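Can anyone check this?
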Amino acid sequence: MDRSEPRPPPQEVAEGEDFGYRLFPERSSEAKPQRSFLSTSLFTFNHKCQVMLRIALDTSPYAQLLLDAMKQSGCTVYKDRHFACEDCDGCVSGGFDAATSQIVLCQNNIHQQSHMNRVVTHELIHAFDHCRAHVDWFSNVKHLACSEIRAANLSGDCSLINEMTRLKFGLKQHHQICVRDRAIRSILAVRKVSKETAEKAVDGVFDSCFNDHEPFGRVPHNKSDAKYAYRNFQNRDRYYANL
């Protein structure tokens, strides 16, 4: 994630398993009351979230590349339809709800634009995987593990700057270690499985999923890398269009 969470049809939910929906209380199966004007007005978390989301979609090369790639794959993303700013549990920043094809942004936990950019990118990677592949989010923990590995690897979650703010840096192969650890933590947050099961799932698919850089074509370690990847993606499209 930050933290990816799809929702299965009610009849498919195993007894005692909520697929992480406890972290997203506004994702309740009960009809949600319509937001009042005051709840979405200026100076609220919701308004700030909506503004930061628009800035992320308009200016982040990570998000722009993913949006173009999804459109090219037949999964056009619309801001009002596919994003929702909601209050969440204190430990999460966002999630992907596969049942509604919607990205949840935790308005009470995202307070900086850089954080919003990273969460939007992370969740768009899950959405891209959902678009391009037959991901079994609910029954196959290896599928979830693969998407979590890709999201941690490609979103900037494990960038040097972010790891330094966590006081974690300088280790050999640190990027790989960070990606593995964050993928395991995400699985444990949204599935009632043992740490051993989560580690086995991540390790079983790590090499192939860590080396799957689509649609970036490379690991964008920073904004400059992402801009370069986006230019290459656009040029690749123009090349194929002229064949």
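Reply from J.R.: I decoded it. Residues 3-16 have pLDDT under 50 and may be disordered.
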